[in-house]
Structures are given as C-alpha cells and as structure tokens.
Design a protein that fits this description.
Oligomer: single chain
Strand order of the largest sheet: 1-2-4-3-5-6-7-8
Number of strands: 8
Distance between the termini: 19 Å
Order of helices and strands: EEEHEHEHEHHHEHEHH
Structural class: alpha/beta
Shape: globular
Number of helices: 9
C-alpha cells in the first residue's frame, strides 16, 4: 500500500559514503512503511545532483511509503571532486565501482532503483550486476544508445551554456566542479569513442520487473529508447509514454510520475 500523499515529511538524513577516490553525499527520506518495503534509490542525470531532485524524493517517500535515497555521484553536487575524463564505460563503472559501496555502507540488502536519463542507464547496470538485491527497476527518460536526436539536443544545450547566467546556475549546485560536470556530459556524449555505446548487452541480464517512463516530446531521445529497454529486459516490463512531456517528467509532472511509480511498486510481482 502506498503512503498517504498528505502525510508530513520527516527531515531527510545525510550520510557520507567513503570510496577510494573521495566521499559521496547520500541523502535519505524516510517512508511510512520502511520496516517492510525496500528503499528506492535514485540515480541522477548528467548535470544532476541530490539538490536538483528538489521535492521529488520527499513526494516519492510519501506516495510509496518507502525510504528514498539519492546520492551525488563522484564529481557532482556535494560529493568530492573528480578530475579525470570519463571513460567510455562510465555508465557501467557506476554500477561496478560506486554502487556496491553505497549498498554496503547503507546496508541495502534489498532495494528498488529509479534512474533518470543517464542515471537510467546506470540503474539498468545496477539491476543487472546486483540482481540478488534488486526488486524493481524504473527508468525515466533513459537513453539506450546514442542517436542523432541525443547529439542534437546536447549541441543545443552546449550553445545555451555559452550564456554566463546558465553556467552560474550550474555552479549553484556543483560549485567549482561545474566546468568538469559540463565537460563530462558534453565531451563524453559527443566523442567518437562513445558513439557505439548501447545497453544492448546488459538489458537481457535485468531479471526484475521494470517500469519504463518516457516523455513523448523528449528532446534527448526518441521513443526507440524506451521501446528497446522494455523489449530487451528479461523480466516483465511495462512501457508508459507520457503525453506532452519532455526530458524531465518528474519536474514537469511530479505528482503523476510519483503516483505511477507508487502504483507500479505496490503491484504484486508477476509470477
């Protein structure tokens, strides 16, 4: 049963996750059914961080009754700096190197995953590599491969970030890491070495049930992305295209997205 949307939200609690390369900030919002339900872990997009989820984690905690955990990847938000260039396998790296430390230090035996944009690809890898603990996967606006629409959207964003006000807005969330964050997104996704990247090999290793959310007007990916994810995972999958919605459904229609997630998580798993 999902939690009451009107219930008062408890103040979130912060934890620092130690890695061999720096600390990660993790924030937890308590749910009303924490004792019985596995936490929902959020993985942010290419320019994201805990703060940029805004009120959505608290809304998810109320709607689902689950504890919700968001964390800043290394180099983002309040986590420690990262100065290296991202390798072409950085999406898998998150699941292979960093998520196990989050899981261990927060005691996450069982969990569900919600990943937005590139965080969706990372959530796919986490679900595959940590299948022993993953109860459910939700992807939102996730890319399954690199297409012209993705590159065109990034090129438009690159032009927009020539505006000093846009860069200053990014610095509000990432401080002196903002330039690295921007280059990690644009430089990686537009590089020839990344052009052949896809989720094709990992999707068949996702055995948990999956909800695939995607906006009909997503400027960074056509409906071919959610269709590929839903078709290729091994477990039961549900695809929901959101009408009149762009790349950030949880910001454009937060209540609707949270309710869809709550309904999906509350439903009995397919036998």
């Amino acid at each position: 049963m999902s939690g009451s949307p009107g219930a008062a939200a408890a103040a979130p609690q912060d934890r620092w996750i130690a890695t061999g390369r720096g600390r990660l900030l993790a924030r937890r919002w308590a749910g009303s059914n924490d004792a019985a339900a596995a936490p929902l872990v959020l993985l942010h997009d290419s320019l994201g961080c805990v703060a940029l989820w805004r009120d959505f984690p608290a809304l998810l905690a109320r709607q689902t009754g689950r504890s919700v955990i968001a964390y800043d990847r290394l180099g983002f938000g309040q986590s420690d700096r990262r100065t290296d260039r991202l390798a072409p396998d950085f999406i898998e790296e998150e699941a292979r190197e960093f998520f196990p430390l989050l899981r261990e230090q927060l005691g996450l035996e069982r969990f569900a995953l919600f990943g937005h944009s590139v965080g969706g690809g990372m959530a796919v890898h986490c679900a595959a590599l940590h299948a022993d603990g993953c109860e459910a996967l939700i992807t939102e606006s996730a890319q399954a491969f690199v297409e012209d629409r993705t590159r065109d959207g990034i090129l438009q964003a690159q032009a927009a970030f020539q505006d000093p006000q846009e860069r200053e807005r990014l610095r509000r969330y990432h401080a002196d890491k903002a330039e690295w964050v921007l280059d990690a997104w644009i430089g990686t996704w537009l590089s020839p070495q990344f052009a052949s990247w896809s989720l094709n090999d990992v999707l068949p290793r996702v055995c948990c049930r999956t909800l695939v959310l995607h906006g009909s007007d997503d400027e960074y990916g056509s409906r071919a992305h959610p269709e590929a994810i839903a078709a290729r995972v091994a477990g039961p999958a549900r695809l929901e295209l959101l009408a009149d919605t762009r790349h950030v459904p949880h910001r454009e229609h937060p209540t609707q997205v949270a309710q869809r997630v709550a309904d999906f998580l509350a439903a009995a798993p397919a036998s």
